[in-house]
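Subject: Sanity check before I submit

Could someone independently write out the structure tokens for this chain? I want to compare against mine line by line before I put it in a report. The sequence has 359 residues.
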Amino acid sequence: MKRRSERTRGPAGTGRGAPGIRPSRQRSRRVLVIVVIAVVIALIVALVVAVSAVQRWVFSATAASPAVGTVILAPPLSKARLALDESGMGAAQRDATEYLSKQPTAYWLTPEQDPPGRAGRTVSALTSAARDQDVSLALVIYGLPGRDCGNHSAGGLSEGEYHRWIDEIATALGAAPDVQKIVVLEPDSLALAPQCDNVAERAAQLRDAVDRLQVARTWIYLDGGHSSWLSPSEMADLITRVDVADRVRGFATNVSNYQSTYDEFAYAHAVAAELDGMHAIVDTSRNGVASAGSEWCNPPGQRVGDPGGTYGDDVVDTNLWIKPPGESDGPCQGGPAAGVWWPQAAQTLTADVLTSDAQ
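---
Independent answer below. Compare away.
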């Protein structure tokens, strides 16, 4: 008979508590768990990337260009909206400002208002607002070095700053592949280039900007001047020098000008005929009477034009309000500096619309 204190022992090293066996198994299990978790995380990341890539491809493949019926965002950050928070306007000026703040209009990205470091946040806020309202977003990018050739809208960024600014804007645009984005790139930059004697420089700058802005559902339009400026052949030659016909939708005419819609459509057709298939958009924000002739700086007696998305054909995708009515062209005709909200102009431009609405 065995005593209670005696125990049967197996082979040496296999008894409970034998050194080295349990810690080794625990380490193996930990390693296995870590490997499994890492594999699962990698698969999830790969799946997210794949789904995102597929979504972006679908958005790009199914993207429709601007057309009749296109509605763009009335920017919540517009100068008309901001002006409503200020005092000093009479009742008629406030009514005009409020009316214009609600109209679908392009938002102008300038380094003065949306400098590097802020521009991306602004674009993200605008794409979010467009998504929420199920509308398109129209942006004007206006910050080239030596902008406006020293005229009323002079300014712009240095070359390096401009590249970073465009990259920031492009990143924010690319983060919203589900939103249709319309980009009018640097108005007046090409039509002014012969006068500024910097055609080659401008063409290179615009080419680089276009390359940086290649993101999903983004339709880019270069500067196309207007019908009372350069001839169609001269304008077409300038656009050709940028050499981006395969990467842009076309060109924009009458931006910040007052020429008639009829004349601008005819002009767009004449320019496009020399560009082998390029399309156009026309700014109709302030051409309601089209009596300004060659005067471009706050000509008196003008009115807002037809709303965006009203007209279009096989060359002109559609018309849009690109220049915000109510913003000054510059310190002329009693107006403030270029781009500053001018309540008197807002009242004049909307006189016919608000009178007819009141009847």
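---
OP: Matches mine. For the report I'm noting this point. The chain is about 40% helix and 10% strand.
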